[in-house]
Amino acid sequence: MNSAINQAYLKTRASVMSGKLVDETDIKSFLHAPLQTLEQQFGLGGLSDRGLGEAELNRVIERGLINTLMNELSILLRPLNGSARDILIYWSRKFELYNLKALIRGKLHDMPYDQIRESLHILPSLISLPHEQLLRTENVPELLRQLEQTPYEGIARQARRVFEEKNESFSLDATIDQRYYTGLLKHARNCDQDDQPTLLRLIGSLIDRQNLPWLLRYRFNYKLSPSETYYLMAPSGRQLQADLLKQLVNMQEITQILHALPAPLNEQLADTTSIMDVELAMGERLTHQARRCLLFSPSAVTRSLAYMMLRELDLKRVFAIIQGRVLKLDEQLIRQAADIKLEAQGV
Amino acid sequence: MFRPLPMKQVLIQLLKDDLPQASLSLAELGNFSPYSAETYAESFPEIPGTHYRGVYHQAHSRLQKIENHIQLNPASSSFATHVITEPELEQTNEWLGEVWERCSAYEEHFRRLTDEAQMLNQLEQALDNFATLNIDLALLHGDRLFLDLRIGLLPSANVPQLKEAIGLANYLLFSYMENAGHTHVIILGPKGEREHELTSVLDTAGFHALEIPPELHDEPERIRQELQLRRENLHQERQQREAAMSACAEELRPRLEQCRDILIMAEPYVAMDDAARNIGELAIITGWVPEQALHQIESTLNKTLQNPFRITATTPSREQHSQVPTFLPTNWLTSPFSSLVKQYGIPRYGEINPTLVFAFSFIAMFGMMFGDVGHGLVITLAAWLARGKLKSFTPFVICAGLSAALFGLLYGSLFGYEHLFHAIWLPPLSDPLYMLSMALLWGIGFMVVISLLYIHNRLVSGELSHALFDTNGVVSITLYLSVLGGIYNLYLTGHFGIIPASMSVVTLLTLLAFKLIETHATPGERMLVATIETFETLTGYISNTLSFLRVAAFSLNHVALAIAVFTLADMMEGTGHWLMVIGGNIFILVLEGAIVTIQALRLEYYEGFSRFFSGDGKEFTPLKLSLEGLK
């Protein structure tokens, strides 16, 4: 990403595209906007007229979300090359990792072929695994043998060890996530010196959002030991650095951990009572950080990555609203799904 | 011959129980292409055979995986067929599942053996490392009262995180060697309640313990012999497994081939997919058949179906042409040319079949550019000798060789020698300008034929305005010919001529007017786009025509290369001279032969195909008895 022209072009592109992002007012207005206009606006035209079942509806909506994201990603990728291009592509691999987890979980629980297939995202060939071939495998070892022939070989080998030693899916998921975030950091460190500081800050926030709720889950839900919990953390978060994580994993209560967080994180999380609340609060922090990067970062690739992260969050919320409205769900439930602050009844 | 076969849309009404038999019979005939007709979805809402399809796909996938381990003989082209019932298919699937389980176990075992062999390599390197250390290895063994000590290796990428993590359990990690993505480590810490915690983290991190023999220092040779023995055992085990696998393959092959035949017979019903629909016991099959095969289909179904059925055939309307598959009949001679046409695309139903035009013009242009009796005959002979490898492309290469030989006779050239016999026409280098003008004439003829094909195709599609006024339409070709006529007049008399000039202006304005009507934009943009497109139509014709100059240029190039070879050969004497002549001719054959083939194809695709057919038609893919239809 050396060319000044490319930097300027990409910043302009990201800036133009940022016009598509929605704020809280927009999100709230979507709750009452005509459904057809909403579907049209987000590339899901005619969705409500098709009379789809719940599973099919989920699938169509997810496909719409990923299609939109991938189309926009391909626009941002055009002027990029080398490590800057690699990091954006690597970020998008998270969707394929969702598929990978669904495949492993499905095989582990001996789920039928069609059921696993329904839960897979359809992705562009750039990041997609040979789904049909993997779906036709008949058990986890065979699936992992097949995966060892794909670009996910490293993850597959690691997953095989975890599977052979522990034979449980959550360890596999954790290992896959840890490898993904470690890989994302590695890609950021391979970028140009000019891009690195802001990229690492943004990815650090992303890792913090991942680490804190999972630290709480591993310690208090899964009852893992401090050392194993620490091992499953992605290293080098922004505020939750290695030394702090080491202290946190040794604590015995959630409140103790939340109080030990650095300011202003501890203040923001002071009122949270559940891991879900912590996750939501961390999500808000990440959104805030990404918006700052999108507006002020001197690095074009950081702006592009920030845009993609925000766009994904936005589309998830919008599609949750569309999905809820097509299924005629209760508004409060839709608000909850779309992470819109609940309003008092009758207001 | 010049058009795809006329097709009929057929609706077969039958009883649901007859669907598998009807599918099988249609596949045996090989001239029915299933088509999902949504119009019947309401009257016949059910799609039969969902479970059958699922079982088939699993069985097919299993067979494919098994075939990676057990090679089967090619399927016989004719075998006694029968309808495969669901229980028979399930039984086959079940048995294939058992076989695959065995194959998978072998695969997993081989994988384990490979892992073990790699571990042995790692261990050997670790021992080499320990052997050079001046420590008592016995200290690393046995239970210790206060110290928990482990030696092993893990993926290098996991080391930093693991080191930090086990530090929390008061353990230390030292790495002493790294190789092939693995790091050898020693982990030690206080014995006690956190041992279990450590084991769990080590498992997650992919830690493999290594056994360091305590007697390594005292008896290194014996240890090495033991390692060698373990390696040999692994090798032996692998060989035994491979032998067992081959024995298993021999034992299973006949039944596997039977299973493959069962799947081949089951596939037509599966391939019907939603082209077969039913409501209760009443079912329909919809699809396309060549008109000429209709009677054969009806009589075959009459013989094979037990219950009454009704077949209705309708001619597709012009509006339906985009849905009709294109059936391009081929024979041994036209098959390779048809393949090359398909590389570009499939003509839409009703459009001209370009295969014959392509075959004739390609062969002619190859000969024009590569005219040499000797080279042509060598190509023909080589194609005949390599017919096993060239397969269906043998006639293509033979035709190209014969065309080169024929033009060689016209040019009077034999292996580059131009004085061995008298040219029937003329040697290219004797009058290069004449050759270039001939190439231009060929190009003009080619462009006119291509435009006529375009006009025909548009008329067939009912696009009269495009046939008349669009680029390549009647107006464009008139413009092209009047400009050419004017230029010819200019060359002969120094005047463009009133008739060509007025025709050029009228056609140009007509073309511009059509473009203005066709362009949907703001007035300014519309004018700009229409003007540019009109101009582009004219320049396109001219530049495409000039492209054909390469036909003459390559015929001249062929002679020039031969002259270069002879000049070099004349610098040598005796054997050197003849080696140079032979080597030079081989060089011309290979290099120029390849270039001329590419150039001729380029002219066909870019100057020809791109002008008259869109290539977005659907190929007629009939149901067949094979496992290749479904992926």
Report on the structure:
The complex is a heterodimer of chains A (347) and B (631). Chain A is globular and about 50 Å long. Chain A is mainly alpha-helical. In chain A, helix 16 packs across helix 17. Chain A contains 18 helices and no strands. Chain A has a domain at 197-298: V-type ATP synthase subunit C fold (Up-down Bundle), CATH 1.20.1690. The longest helix of chain A is centred in the first third of the chain and has 27 residues, at 82-108. Chain B is α+β, with helices and mostly antiparallel strands. Chain B folds into four domains: 1-46 and 280-329 and 622-631, Alpha-Beta Plaits (2-Layer Sandwich); 120-234, Alpha-Beta Plaits; 355-446 and 552-612, no CATH class; 463-547. In chain B, the strands form three sheets. In chain B, strands 1, 2, 7, 8 and 9 form a five-stranded antiparallel sheet that branches. In chain B, helix 9 crosses helix 12 (394-411), helix 10 (373-385) runs antiparallel to helix 12 and helix 13 runs antiparallel to helix 18. The longest helix of chain B has 53 residues, at 220-272. Chain B is extended. At the A-B interface, helix 8, helix 9, helix 10, helix 12 and helix 13 of A face helix 2, helix 3, helix 4 and helix 5 of B.
Give a quick rundown of the structure:
The complex is a heterodimer of chains A (347) and B (631). Chain A has 347 residues and is an all-alpha fold.
What descriptors fit this protein?
A: 347 residues; mainly alpha; V-type ATP synthase subunit C fold; 18 helices; B: 631 residues; alpha+beta; Alpha-Beta Plaits; five-stranded antiparallel β-sheet; four-stranded antiparallel β-sheet; 19 helices; 10% strand
